[in-house]
Amino acid sequence: MRVICPNCSSKDVGKIGTNQYYCWNCFIEMSVSNEQIASVYQVEEDGSLHSLNDLFIEDQTVTAHLNM
């Protein structure tokens, strides 16, 4: 399964956990549930996560681009 980043459209996305992915191009982490992106986070320099859900999730449904 391959996920395309909703921020930069990069295919350079790796799986880092169960239903969790990381974009190596723009450094965001995302969770996928039922082929939908459930949450999006920016990874800060100290390793903490900053939610970007208000940019990607609010008032819209973001479908994960999955290539089987």
Describe this structure in words.
- With about 70 residues, the chain is mainly beta.
- The protein has a domain at about 10-55.
- The chain has 1 helix and 7 strands.
- Strands 2-3-4-5-6 form a 5-stranded antiparallel beta sheet.
- A hairpin with a 2-residue loop joins strand 2 (about 15) and strand 3 (about 20-25).
- The protein is globular, with a radius of gyration of 11 Å.
- The N and C termini lie close together (about 5 Å).
Tell me the number of helical segments per DSSP (H or I, 4 or more residues long). Answer: 1
Helix-strand sequence: EEEEEEHE
How helical, in percent, are the residues? under 10%
Instruction: Tell me the Rg in angstroms.
Output: 11 Å
How would a textbook summarize the main sheet?
A: 5 strands, antiparallel
Order the strands across the largest sheet as they lie in space: 2-3-4-5-6
Q: Please indicate the percent range of residues in DSSP E strands (runs of 2 or more).
A: over 45%
What is the mean predicted local confidence, pLDDT?
83
Output the structural class: mainly beta
Termini separation (Å)? 5 Å
The rough form would be described as globular
In short:
This protein is mainly beta and 68 residues long. The chain contains 1 helix and 7 strands. It has a domain at 11-54.
